[in-house]
Design brief:
Order of helices and strands: EHHEHHHHEEEEHEHEHHEHEHEHHEEEE
Strand order of the largest sheet: 5-6-7-8-9-10-11-12-13-14-15
Radius of gyration: 22 Å
CATH topology of the largest domain: TIM Barrel
Number of domains: 2
Structural class: alpha/beta
CATH class of the largest domain: Alpha Beta
């Protein structure tokens, strides 16, 4: 699959194109109706590059990239899908369809791990819009113009950003607020621009957010969370402001800051087009580094060979494997989740197939309420079979790196499913994180 540089401009597909696109996969009318029903609850967006260059339409519905971006009718409970499909079939008023969809969304834990309640800082008792400050060193910023993506992943834990519910959306266009907050918190050394996808923004808009940070001596690194290399690599090759964007990256590095591209690759096919190698090379030439991450997703990348191939290819291209995540407890988690025991087996078997250069990767990691919890393994201690776990990062820095144990549960898919071993409570249940989020 080769994408010709500059062959065409970006073209987005949304729910209004869904029925037509599903026809390419040979889905019958009833199947298309049920997929459209799911798409009233979960967001759908893709683009011509993904549709024409990455999806093998002869393998639909099992093609992994198709499953990565197109809703599946069994992502939601059957009763909910049938109810919504009936409303669509009967041409029910849009308000009635949306009311039913919203009721289902609220059952899907739209903001997991305390994103709104625990992570949003407050100044004089008021929340600071568009910011999250979960870990002492790092502040997340959600630029208003970057709260969409070139395409949406069906498993995305930030799906609530894209459904038109203002109360669920995190966003700000006030860079001054971010600068003042950082100045008031000298422990902050890193800013992560996230979304959505910040690389959906033009260079001029991105520059407006980035430039004010370059004069802050305390900031050591700027990170950009993005899937643009997988979903629209022409952003760095043929787009009108590709050159200006790369120049901005160089300016960040020359200012003395580390610029890290947190690139989201879910499947090896996303690495295959020649234009991806070109885009990666241009970013690296700017002085930025590229670290790769993705969640482990059932039916898309739940094989050790898939991960070992990705890590080897990414390393050969000059990127740094960084994280394998566990699918978060939000949205259609039941559909995509892999048990923690299976997740560790997949990670271990993939890790065993790669050289030390690829072993920069960490995981499987749960981004849970108390922090990033890594599943180190399954073993027997004092006659009990247990999970061995540790915090890669935590709300309470005292917990970072400390091993702890949980009773082995072959069905567990998330931290909340586990029970502590050799103690009445987990370590994070004994402590309170520092109250740095109020000022």
């Amino acid at each position: 699959m080769i994408f010709s540089k500059g062959a065409r401009g970006f073209r987005a597909y949304t729910t209004k194109h869904l029925d037509e696109l599903l026809g390419r996969g040979g889905l019958d009318e009833q199947a298309r109706l049920r997929v459209r029903a799911v798409a009233t609850v979960l967001p759908f967006r893709t683009n011509a590059y993904v549709v024409d260059e990455l999806i093998d339409w002869s393998a639909v519905p099992d093609d992994p990239i198709y499953r990565l971006v197109f809703p599946q009718e069994d992502m939601l409970p059957e009763a909910d899908v049938s109810r919504l499909a009936g409303l669509l079939r009967d041409a029910a008023p849009a308000a009635r369809v949306q009311e039913a969809a919203r009721e289902i969304r609220m059952r899907l834990n739209p903001h997991p791990a305390g994103q709104l309640e625990l992570n949003v800082p407050r100044v004089d008792g008021e929340p600071v819009p568009g910011l999250q400050h979960k870990y002492s060193e790092t502040v997340l910023f959600f630029p208003k113009q970057g709260q969409t993506c070139h395409a949406y992943c069906t498993y995305c834990f930030r799906w609530a950003q894209f459904i038109g519910e203002p109360d669920l959306k995190m966003a700000s266009d006030d860079i001054g607020n971010l600068v003042e907050y950082v100045k008031a918190h000298p422990e902050v050394t890193s800013i992560l621009f996230t979304g959505g996808d910040p690389m959906i923004m033009s260079e001029a808009v991105l520059r407006r957010y980035v430039e004010p940070l370059l004069g802050l001596e305390q900031i050591e690194s700027i990170r950009i969370g993005t899937k643009s290399l997988a979903y629209w690599p022409d952003r760095f090759v043929g787009d009108p402001d590709a050159g200006a964007t790369l120049k901005l990256f160089t300016e960040v590095v020359e200012s003395g800051k580390s610029l890290a591209f947190m690139a989201h690759f879910t499947h090896p096919r996303e690495l295959e087009p020649d234009i991806v190698q070109t885009a990666v090379g241009r970013i690296l030439e700017s002085g930025a580094t590229i670290r790769t991450q993705a969640p482990l997703i059932r039916s898309i990348n739940d094989r050790p060979d898939t991960w070992s191939h990705m890590w080897r290819r990414q390393t050969a291209m000059g990127m740094i494997p960084y994280y394998m995540f566990v699918e978060r407890d939000t949205g259609p988690q039941d559909y995509f989740a892999v048990t923690l025991a299976e997740a560790h087996r997949i990670f271990r078997d993939a890790y065993a197939q790669v050289s030390g250069l690829c072993r920069t990767v960490r995981g499987p990691s749960m981004s849970a309420t108390p922090g990033k919890v890594c599943v180190d393994g399954v073993t027997e201690v004092a006659g009990q079979r247990v999970f061995v776990l540790h915090f890669i990062q935590a709300r309470d820095p005292e917990l970072v790196g400390r091993p702890f144990f949980a009773h082995y549960d072959p069905h567990a898919v998330w931290l909340d499913d586990l029970r502590p071993a050799f103690a009445d409570r987990f370590p994070f249940e004994f402590t309170e994180a520092p109250n740095r989020l109020s000022a």
